[in-house]
Amino acid sequence: MPPHIIPADTSTVWEKRADLAAPEEAKFLEGPQPRGFELVRAARIFLELIRGFRTLHFVGPCVTVFGSARFKEGHPYYAVGRVIGRELAKAGFTVMTGGGPGIMEAANRGAREIGGRSIGCNIRLPKEQKPNPYLDSWITFRYFFVRKLMLVKYSYAFIAMPGGYGTLDEVFEVSTLIQTGKIHDFPVAFLGVEYWAPLLKFLRETLLKAGTIDAPDVDRLIVSDDPAEVVRRVTEQVIPKFKLRYGPRPRRIKWLGE
After folding, report:
1. How many domains does the chain have?
2. What's the domain range around 87?
3. Strands 188-191 and 62-66, sheet pairing
4. pTM of the shown model
5. How is 58-82 classified by DSSP, letter by letter?
């Protein structure tokens, strides 16, 4: 049956869907729902946005580090994550991550080890992802798209360490925002030359040749194995561009929930 034709007996279809007992977020994404259900979800999304804005308003100029949750302590990538966290903190940036384990934990840990600020945007998953123990503060989100908004909104640069689908999703969303002019002049770095080489080759030899991206979309990317070099290049770009400077932090207003 073509997908645009509605069966005559729709009750059977909806009963089967209800039997799936989908989690609330999955149900929300399954298509049209009762109006009351969707109104409540819209309100919940709005409140989650406000909670994120108020919580992260005071975190300072951030750099977001993306990377896999699967590289545990003892893995070479975990060690590099700690170094990038330390280097960013030494440069005066707040280190922001997805707040979970693996490379996210490593970057937060590196920042904390030298007294830098460490922030996490955690996500609620069916198999609970707990915030790592190296966070000064964190916020746990229900919706991935709200979490990704916060990871972008408060950061002046983005560093992609080795990772999987989540890391690719995050770094390509940032790249799309830059390509389409939604955000401007925000450095994007790939840390780990060997790991990212096949992807960068695909960008240059397939997408660029096909004309689906332009040369500046690739040329602007920072690619290195050296955390110190990445932080130096990020600092050289963002401090003069955005006129960042050290100064007093804004005052919190309690009645706004800050």
Report:
1. 2
2. 62-242
3. unpaired
4. 0.84
5. TS-SEEEEE--S---TTSHHHHHHH
